[in-house]
Amino acid sequence: MARKKTSLEERRRNFAALAFPHMDALYGTALRMTRHPFDAEDLMQEVYLRAYRFFDRFEDGTNFKAWIFKILTNTFINRYRQKARAPQQTNFDKVEFFYTAAEKERDDKYESHYDEKQYADLFGDEVSAALGKLSYEFRAVVILCDIEGFSYKEISQITGAPMGTVMSRLSRARQQLQSYLHDYAQSEGVVKKKQ
To answer: Where do the structural domains in the chain lie, given as residue ranges?
Structure first.
């Protein structure tokens, strides 16, 4: 059932009341998906713009969190596919020999400190690296299930994949993560070394 006609101000209030409480969780998921704060912020802007634009399609009484996470996931996947199809481009403004010494020093410090520090705060280096090795389909289901706490049914609705596919991807992703993190788990004493 579609939302009844409301005033613009009422629509804004309704949207804000439903959407803003999920902002931190959405940003955390966007950051884990993109692995870059600037890309995550850009993704968030597009998600909120789309959610607001299509808010009249949201059905009252249904799961708003799953609805907006579906927008996030679909937007991320569409961007990922667009980048994969786009030809490789070089941004000559960023080529090293165009920088002055002061510009190079400033950009290097900013980039390495901001990106790695903020992403590393979410997970340890080993876990971040292991998540980064997963395909975007596997990474998305792990993030939605194990970090955001969505059920298989909700993940199925968010990703548009059948529930069996979600369960299969999650199982395979967890196996891959276990493989990637095995040595680290042994070094931390989580898994005992075989003797």
So the answer is: 1-89, 123-195
Q: Which two tokens stand for residue 85?
A: 């199809």
Structure tokens at 173: 């992703």
Render pLDDT for 53-62 as a digit per residue (tens, 0 to 9). 999 999 988 9
Which residue stretches of 54-100 are H helix? Answer: 64-85
Tell me the CATH class for 1-89: mainly alpha
pTM above 0.85, yes or no: no
Find where tokens 């705060």 sit: 121
Q: Distance between CA atoms of 140 and 142, rounded to whole angstroms? A: 6
Element spanning 1, H or E: none
Residue 160's φ and ψ, nearest 5 degrees, are 80, 10
Spatial contact of 16 and 8, defined as CB atoms under 8 Å apart:
no
Shared fold status for 1-89 and 123-195 = no
Phi, psi of 138 (to 5 degrees): -70, -45
Buried b (16+ CB within 10 A) or exposed e, 107-125: eeeeeeeeeeeebeeeeee
Residue that the structure tokens 């298989």 belong to:
152
Which class is domain 123-195?
A: mainly alpha
Token pair of 166, please? 């979600």
